[in-house]
TrEMBL record:
GO MF annotation, one: ATP hydrolysis activity
Alphabetical list of PROSITE patterns matching this protein: ABC_TRANSPORTER_1, ABC_TRANSPORTER_2
A Pfam family hit: ABC_tran
SMART domains according to UniProt: AAA
Bilayer topology term: Peripheral membrane protein
Record's subcellular location: Cell inner membrane
Keyword match Transport: yes
Protein name (Swiss-Prot/TrEMBL): Dipeptide ABC transporter ATP-binding protein
Organism name: Nitratireductor arenosus
Keywords, comma-separated and alphabetical: ATP-binding, Nucleotide-binding, Transport
GO cellular component: plasma membrane
Biological process annotations from GO: transmembrane transport
Family from the record: Belongs to the ABC transporter superfamily.
SUPFAM superfamilies in UniProt: P-loop containing nucleoside triphosphate hydrolases
């Protein structure tokens, strides 16, 4: 039977803005009644334009923010930030990789220390073992031993994203939330990082939530696709079905607006790399 790692049930997130003594302000419905399930080892891509609620949903899934209503389940366990708080074990299960890794890497920390830090903070692992694990992960993401003692500014964008991925994997998470992880990279580097993510997913049986506005990338990486529009999931289903037979008018418009050449060129490049 399939194992469900992540489930959202009727998730809602409202933001109350403004308001004061004589007015009640305004409510923004950032996420409206969104439900999904992600099986172990699979990738759910969340697609949509700026402001549609992708980042809000990412914050709920990574347990940074609590939903206004609905339930989030990780490995079948209900997450209740308000009542129960989070156990360290629960926190370890979900990690996030952002679009701009430079912003999340401490410029004064050598890469070996960047990778060792999650172990230092969350485990009682001895220093030598921490260093070994950090070195192993560095090699896993395609960097070399010579990179261990270098600082973040000494790396290219693609290499920094590899470091961010390695750091996210240090605590053996079950689920990675990848928030536009290749959007800031050149096309050829995008393909390399996407291939790396696919390899790591196979090797560690990882489950991914992949947030993107780029349909060519989504088509390559996703098993299931959820299209968001003004906080609603207007389309949700298997990748091939969603791409070949979109049901909602917004999805049809979104797909029609993506230049076909972009889709074809990246697919051809990825196919050549895989061959
Ligand atoms: N902390 C907040 N307070 C008030 N409104 C917010 C807050 N965070 C998000 N919003 C609003 O909720 C809606 C969804 O925002 P969200 O950042 O989730 O969208 P997004 O699809 O991730 O956009 P982008 O790709 O530009 O980050 C937007 O209208 C946004 O202005």
């Amino acid at each position: 039977m399939s194992e469900i790692v992540l489930e959202g049930r009727n998730l809602v997130r409202d933001y109350h803005i403004g308001g004061g003594l004589f007015s009640s302000g305004r409510v923004i419905h950032a996420v409206k009644d969104v439900s999904f399930k992600v099986e172990k080892g699979k990738t759910l891509a969340i697609v949509g334009e700026s402001g549609c609620g992708k980042s809000t949903l990412a914050r709920i899934i990574t347990m940074i923010d609590a939903p206004t209503a609905g339930e989030l389940l990780i490995d079948g366990d209900k997450v209740d930030l308000v009542k129960d708080g989070l156990t360290p074990e629960m926190r370890r299960k979900v990690q996030i990789v952002f679009q701009n890794p430079y912003g999340s890497l401490n410029p004064r920390q050598k890469i070996g220390d960047v990778l060792g830090e999650p172990l230092l903070v969350n485990t009682a692992m001895p220093t030598a073992e921490r260093r070994d694990r950090a070195m192993q992960m560095l090699l896993k993401v395609g960097l070399g031993p010579e990179h261990f003692s270098r600082y973040p500014h000494m790396f290219s964008g693609g290499q920094r994203q590899r470091i961010a991925i390695a750091r996210a994997l240090m605590l053996n998470p079950r689920l990675l939330v990848l928030d536009e992880p290749v959007s800031a990279l050149d096309l050829s580097v995008q393909a390399q990082v996407l291939n790396l993510l696919a390899d790591l997913q196979d090797e560690f049986d990882l489950t991914y939530v992949f947030i993107s506005h780029d349909l060519s990338v989504v088509r390559y990486i996703a098993d299931d696709v959820m299209v968001m529009y003004f906080g609603e999931a207007v389309e949700y289903g298997g990748r091939d079905r969603v791409f070949s037979d979109p049901q909602h008018d917004y999805t049809k418009t979104l797909f029609a607006a993506t230049p076909r050449a972009d889709v074809e060129s990246i697919r051809a490049r990825l196919a050549r790399r895989a061959a």
